[in-house]
Amino acid sequence: MAEDPRDWQQETKLVRGGMARSPYGEISEALYLTQSFSYDTAGAADKRFSGEDPGFIYQRFGNPTTQMFEDRLALLEGAEACRATASGMAAVHVALQGLVRAGDHIVAGRALFGSCRWILSEWMPRFGVDITYVDATDLDAWKNAVRPNTKAFLVETPANPLLEITDVAAVAKIAHEAGAKLVVDNVFATPIFQKPLALGADIVVYSATKHIDGQGRVLGGAILGAEPLMTESYKDILRHTGPALSPFNAWVLLKGLETMELRVTRQTENAAKIADVIGAHAKAKTVLYPARADHPQAEIVAKQMSGGGTVVAFDLGSREAAWRFLDALDIVDISNNLGDAKSMATHPSTTTHRSMPEEQRLEIGLTEGWVRMSVGLESVIDLTRDVSRALDGA
């Protein structure tokens, strides 16, 4: 009697979930590099296009390798369905675009990645969608922002770059009372440490570029949720606008999932230690890390996250001090990516959040002294030496 993969432990899901072997019985998942598929008869093609036969038609619509990635990630997330995209930003864009139309309204937390903020502030209004930004930690702000035409809420938690935490269950309740859907960007927490769907979210989005690949190789994204909502809101937009994940990238991401828990767990252990090192240094005015007791939303972290994640943010007081710190690093790379096996640090004001006007950055507390560090798999002894030396020079 075959086991139900939903009953497997997380580690097993990450290694074996979604496996669809060819007749050759390969151990490593097959990579299907093909744009299209053939049919035995014209009638068979008709059945594929009508949906009577659920087989593959065209890479833009689906691919066996991509489907294995989607099925494995859905199993891990506890979602009924997953749709892969070419990048994390494609996932965010489609996740929002599929829920609204001209005349609708979105409420979003202010603390967002710069490109997410651009989509909301610059792109969506071109199509008649209104946006309201709120302090994502203020539940009354969410309630007061609701309008009769509100269709979607968007929140990053932890948020980029200052790791603000939102009470997902509480915001989901407000959204549902308003007849809206809650979209949660779960990149920083990863599916290892936070399950937004279990907390009440309707849609979860990922940049698979980050921890899922986690080794600096490919771009990818994912949208997850209940099958009826995923079909109604995203099937047609994904098929006809074409933000498809390449099969090669899907294969790389499948291999990344196999080791993600091991990598993310060790990176998180390192991050917690590095956060304490930075917090104890005289040059750091403030350090933010979700697992620290002094995090402003520590109670919410304890309620909805099982780990602090891989990212630390800290304020050195000025751009000059932040740049001196970055330039003094020897092991840690200066890079705007995160979730990688290699430790990386960046100056958000001039990189990831550069597209945000200064007043918007200040609204979320992002002054020019802040550094965001993604902690990797190097020895914490070496990282401590490198970070401490750079702080001394800041």
Would you give an account of this structure?
The chain is built from 16 helices and 12 strands. α12 crosses α16. The chain has 394 residues and is an alpha/beta fold. It starts with 9 loop residues before the first helix and ends with a helix.
Short précis:
With 394 residues, the protein is of the alpha/beta class. It has helices at 10-16, 42-50, 64-77, 88-97, 114-123, 139-145, 168-177, 190-193, 196-199, 209-213, 227-241, 247-279, 298-304, 319-328, 358-363, 380-392, and strands at residues 81-85, 105-109, 130-134, 150-156, 181-185, 203-207, 221-225, 286-288, 311-315, 333-334, 344-346, 370-374.
CATH superfamily of the largest domain: Type I PLP-dependent aspartate aminotransferase-like (Major domain)
Mean pLDDT: 97
Strand order of the largest sheet: 1-7-6-5-4-2-3
**Share in β-strands:** 5-15%
| Secondary structure tally, helices | 16
Low-confidence stretches: none
CATH-defined topology of the largest domain: Aspartate Aminotransferase, domain 2
Q: List SSEs in N-to-C order.
A: HHHEHEHEHEHEHHEHEHHEHEHEEHEH
Q: Class by helix and strand content?
A: alpha/beta
Annotated CATH architecture of the largest domain: 3-Layer(aba) Sandwich
Report the helical percentage: 40-55%
Whole-number count of domains: 2
Distance from N terminus to C terminus (CA atoms, Å) equals 62 Å
What profile does the largest beta sheet have?
7 strands, mixed
**Assembly level:** single chain
What's the total number of strands?
12
- Rg to the nearest angstrom? 21 Å
Q: Quick one: overall form?
A: globular
